[in-house]
Protein: Cupredoxin family copper-binding protein
Organism: Paraburkholderia tagetis
Amino acid sequence: MSRLPHILLARSGICAIVLAAAAGPAAASDHVVTIEQMRFSPPTVKVHSGDTIVWVNKDLVAHTASAQASTFDSGSIAPGASWRYVASKPGSYAYQCLFHPTMHGTLIVEPKP
Ligand SMILES: [Cu+2]
């Protein structure tokens, strides 16, 4: 994999996500945060405890999604790769990219409905 061009990796990552989203109702509690052009999109995501958040890196450089309170930390997400996190404790979690401190996001976890 590592010898493939970055563009190809990025595209295959995007395709995988599209296919996963189209695959069925199991994705109902999955939330996707796209990392593209040095931004988290959407910048704020609201989920319920137990939901899964997937950060998908569509940039050509690595990023991280690291909570300022160390609640979660993706580590380096390579170009074209993604990272999944299952939300647990309700709260509001500001996070940033450790490589690019101007990149900010917020994860809001609400109690189970
Ligand atoms: Cu970054």
User: Anything to note?
Assistant: The longest strand covers residues 30-36. Residues 64 and 98 are 6 Å apart (CA to CA). The helical segments are 6-23. The pocket of copper (II) ion is lined by residues 63, 97, 99-100, 103 (CB under 6 Å).
